[in-house]
Design the sequence.
């Protein structure tokens, strides 16, 4: 059958369909005829099956699409769509407010008020499959003791930090999984803010006077310095003295992560595709290259592999919920927040809905601009 694609796997792989839906992954389908025509330049001359056709790409400036009048579900309402490259977030906001752009995404929480008070603009916050967290070097003392890790979790006032630093652009996290992903367990909740309990746990772990630790944050990412200082202040209230490390670039980040000294670090992970495997396996399997906390639990490893190899969705989700419960109990990280995608559009734009991966749910087919 020329219309059937067969995939032969070495073993069952539960996340397969969600992996295939990942635009950034290895499963994108291309037009053989178009690839034969342009070869390695295909990436700059893409051919697809959506409601718009590629017209041109001016590097560093814009990508322009034209309507596909032969689209199987009917032609789109717009004749043309231009994706304009504006790297500076405040400039994107300015252009939207001045009428130079119809839609923008990824601007600062500090600009939310400007957007919300505009009579010509609609604010569009979208839940995002992301977890912001404080990583803990689980393999180094004193963090090898789960009581110390839980003490750190009890010491950090997550709700206050999220409220004041994100200006309402995120919700507090209680566990590692973003709400909205299948398998999310609202009952899996990390240690709540309780500085008295934090001091008790430190004393039980043989650290009644507290201890000294490093805290790294990414000074090159907006808002991370303020986040680091807020965490530092909370920790010092329970006797954990903090040496602050403001990393200036990714090379410094990776160098600090390789040091053999106790470390806390602010980090985050966004799911590449909507499957719990991409969050839980990525962050907590002992052999995952993105498991920067060096968390290792053979039972959790076995559960993650079991879920990955199962093709029964109900079984997979039950296993992932068990993983979440174990993770919040062992506290390999302190989970801070689930940020929103900050988007906005001119009120003249009708029919726009974004999904959790920041993509129009109908590929812009039903979007129109009122005159």
Sequence:
């Amino acid at each position: 059958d020329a219309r059937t694609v067969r995939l032969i796997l070495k073993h069952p792989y539960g996340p397969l369909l969600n992996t295939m839906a990942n635009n950034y992954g290895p499963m994108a389908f291309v037009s053989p005829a178009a690839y034969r025509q342009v070869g390695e330049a295909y990436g700059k001359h893409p051919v697809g099956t959506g409601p718009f056709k590629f017209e041109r790409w001016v590097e560093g400036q814009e990508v322009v699409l034209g309507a596909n009048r032969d689209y199987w579900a009917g032609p789109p309402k717009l004749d043309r769509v231009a994706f304009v490259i504006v790297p500076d977030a405040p400039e994107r906001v300015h252009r939207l407010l001045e009428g130079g752009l119809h839609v923008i995404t990824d601007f600062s929480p500090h600009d939310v008020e400007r957007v919300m008070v505009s009579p010509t603009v609609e604010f569009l916050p979208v839940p995002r499959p992301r977890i912001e967290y404080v990583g803990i070097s689980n393999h180094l003392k004193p963090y090898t003791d789960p009581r110390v890790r839980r003490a750190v979790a009890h010491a950090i006032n997550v709700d206050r930090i999220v409220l004041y630093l994100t200006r309402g652009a995120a919700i507090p996290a209680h566990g590692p999984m973003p709400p909205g992903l299948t398998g999310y367990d609202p009952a899996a909740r990390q240690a709540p803010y309780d500085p008295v309990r934090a001091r008790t746990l430190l004393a039980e772990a043989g650290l009644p006077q507290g201890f000294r630790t490093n805290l790294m944050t990414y000074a090159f990412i907006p808002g991370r310095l303020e986040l680091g200082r807020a965490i530092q202040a909370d920790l010092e209230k329970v006797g954990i003295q903090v040496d602050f490390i403001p990393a200036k670039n990714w090379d410094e980040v990776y160098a600090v992560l390789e040091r053999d000294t106790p470390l806390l670090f602010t980090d985050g992970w966004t799911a590449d595709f909507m499957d719990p495997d991409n969050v839980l396996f990525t962050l907590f399997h002992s052999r995952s290259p993105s498991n920067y906390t060096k968390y290792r639990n053979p039972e959790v490893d076995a559960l993650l592999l079991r879920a990955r190899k199962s093709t029964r969705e109900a079984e997979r989700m039950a296993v992932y919920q068990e993983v979440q419960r174990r993770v919040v109990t062992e506290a390999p990280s302190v989970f801070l927040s689930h940020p929103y995608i900050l988007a906005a559009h001119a009120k003249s734009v009708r029919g726009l809905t974004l999904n959790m991966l920041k993509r129009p749910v109908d590929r812009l087919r039903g979007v129109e601009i009122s005159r």
